[in-house]
């Protein structure tokens, strides 16, 4: 049973729709309308009547069976006790997929678990799939779907984000907007009664709009199924996992939160390694890597070149590169090309120090030469903000040169400075060039790309 209707539905019904601000059934309808979903939207609520949201009037159907049209996806926002009846009606209507926002099931213990299993049984009887229950919804930017009660303006991009935690997922949604992380999809999976991480991995593997997948996970129900899916997907696209519940106490908290089995952490670590999954330990680290892995091409060789205007950040980046096992290109004869872009006291040894006098021309020439050189396979551009060059101008130079080169090599940027530096970082990230406020973060993200690429190569060998 395909889950395509979760991302490309021609029509969506919100069951438990409301015209009252502050209600979840109101927020989901509002997000669907204002994010620009172009398919048909239907409001369903036993009270019937009419509601108006964002300038659109809706006739409210008392049951999904009364809707005079086919429905691909029904978002369920009714209290738990009414969900079994609603699922049955959706089955009779021929709905394909059901994101169930309602909570009060498996996370409450054995009784709730039993009801959850019955819901899945009913759904499968009619050929339907269930997402959740206990979720905040689903976003798919290519079809302009925001069927969540989270923030509205999710930035389109190449990263699919899957979250087992609802509140954290909503917070991360807001964070991606603030940090200019573009998403292809955001899926809240809650109790994973039916659709799970493995199902979603398999879908995103062939999704032309997704470049990398990031999962916040507390536990898996079927470890083997997940690892097999992850291994297959990792051969094609990078998979990053933040696995919570590393400590014994954290594992117990995870079990009570979404009713999931957290399991011994060492087992997860070993399994992730075997299946090519990149395990991040913090949210910051996960998104740092995700920026690079969802936007950049794979490196065609091992040689990394660091371009900088400050000796200090060059040294810090070099330390990070060494710790991460990156190979800094050291053919002095070839590196001499950078002497054209620096004063006599500059250094073209890698890290290449263009000096604090480096302005627009120096960076433009150095970035262009590094991108054009066949033996320089990946580039890190570092900049300490000075009065010589506005960081925003540097951002525009990098975008222009990278576009001219055809974006064939991985390129990461770190800009250290004030408000203008932050604006420059945002400009770069909005244009799909991973940029960071610290040199180590840029280098570690590049290293994650190399780690994935090496694992992939080892599978082909």
Question: Could you please describe the fold and organization of this structure?
Answer:
It is built from 15 helices and 20 strands. The longest helix is centred in the last third of the chain and has 22 residues, at 439-460. It is of the alpha/beta class and 461 residues long. The protein folds into three domains: 1-134, Rossmann fold; 154-295, Succinyl-CoA synthetase domains (Rossmann fold, 3-Layer(aba) Sandwich), CATH 3.40.50.261; 299-460, Succinyl-CoA synthetase domains (Rossmann fold). Strand 18 (378-384), helix 13 (391-404) and strand 19 (411-416) form a beta-alpha-beta unit. Helix content is 40%, strand content 20%. The mean pLDDT is 94. The strands form four sheets. The chain has a seven-stranded mixed beta sheet with strand order 9-8-11-10-12-13-14, sandwiched between helices.
Question: How large a portion of the residues is in β-strands, by DSSP E?
Answer: 15-25%
Amount of helix: 25-40%
Judged by helices, strands and strand pairing, the structural class is alpha/beta
CATH architectural category of the largest domain? 3-Layer(aba) Sandwich
CA(first)-CA(last) distance: 34 Å
Taking pLDDT < 50 over at least 5 consecutive residues as the criterion, the unreliable ranges are: none
Side by side, the strands of the main sheet go: 9-8-11-10-12-13-14
Number of strands: 20
Q: Taking all residues together, what is the mean pLDDT?
A: 94
Number of domains: 3
The general outline is elongated
Q: What is the CATH first-level class name of the largest domain?
A: Alpha Beta
| Gyration radius, rounded | 25 Å
Could you tell me the CATH topology label of the largest domain. Answer: Rossmann fold
Number of helices: 15
Give me the CATH superfamily of the largest domain. Succinyl-CoA synthetase domains
> The biggest beta sheet, please?
7 strands, mixed
């Amino acid at each position: 049973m395909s889950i395509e209707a979760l991302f490309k539905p021609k029509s969506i019904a919100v069951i438990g729709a409301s015209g009252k601000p502050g209600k979840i059934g109101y927020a989901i309808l509002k997000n669907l309308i204002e994010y620009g979903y172009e398919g048909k939207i239907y409001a369903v609520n036993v009270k019937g009547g009419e509601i108006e949201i964002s300038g659109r009037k809706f006739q409210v159907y008392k049951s999904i069976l009364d809707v005079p049209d086919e429905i691909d996806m029904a978002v369920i926002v009714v209290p738990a006790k009414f969900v079994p009846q609603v699922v049955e009606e959706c089955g009779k209507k021929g709905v394909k997929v059901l994101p169930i926002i309602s909570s009060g099931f498996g996370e409450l213990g054995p009784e709730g678990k039993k009801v959850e299993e019955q819901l899945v049984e009913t759904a499968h009887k009619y050929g339907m799939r269930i997402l959740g229950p206990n979720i905040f919804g689903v976003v798919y930017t290519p079809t302009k779907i925001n069927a969540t009660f989270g923030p509205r303006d999710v930035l389109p991009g190449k990263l699919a984000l899957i979250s087992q935690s609802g509140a954290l997922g909503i917070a991360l949604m807001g964070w991606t907007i603030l940090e200019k992380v573009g998403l292809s999809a955001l899926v809240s999976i809650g109790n994973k009664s039916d659709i799970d991480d493995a199902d979603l991995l398999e879908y995103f593997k062939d999704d032309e709009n997704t470049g990398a997948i990031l999962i916040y996970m507390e536990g898996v129900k079927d470890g083997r199924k997940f690892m097999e899916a992850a291994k297959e997907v990792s051969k094609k696209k990078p998979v990053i996992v933040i696995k919570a519940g590393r400590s014994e106490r954290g594992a117990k908290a995870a079990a009570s939160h979404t009713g999931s089995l957290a399991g011994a952490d060492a087992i997860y670590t070993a399994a992730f390694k075997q299946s090519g999954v990149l395990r991040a330990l913090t949210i910051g680290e996960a998104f740092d890597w995700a920026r690079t892995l969802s936007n950049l091409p794979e490196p065609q060789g091992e040689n990394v070149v660091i371009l900088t205007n400050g000796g200090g950040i060059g040294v810090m980046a070099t330390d990070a590169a060494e710790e991460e096992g990156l190979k800094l290109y050291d053919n002095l004869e070839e590196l001499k090309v950078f002497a054209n872009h620096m004063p006599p006291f500059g250094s073209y040894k890698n890290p290449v120090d263009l000096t604090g006098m480096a302005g627009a021309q120096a960076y433009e020439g150095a970035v262009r030469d590094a991108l054009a050189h066949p033996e320089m396979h990946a580039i890190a551009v570092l900049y300490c903000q000075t009065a010589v060059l506005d960081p925003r101008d540097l951002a525009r130079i990098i975008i222009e040169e990278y576009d001219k080169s055809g974006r064939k090599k991985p390129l990461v940027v770190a800009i250290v400075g004030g408000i203008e530096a932050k604006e420059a970082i945002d400009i770069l990230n909005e244009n799909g060039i991973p940029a960071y406020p610290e040199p180590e973060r840029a280098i570690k993200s590049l290293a994650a790309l190399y780690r994935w690429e090496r694992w992939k190569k080892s599978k082909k060998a």
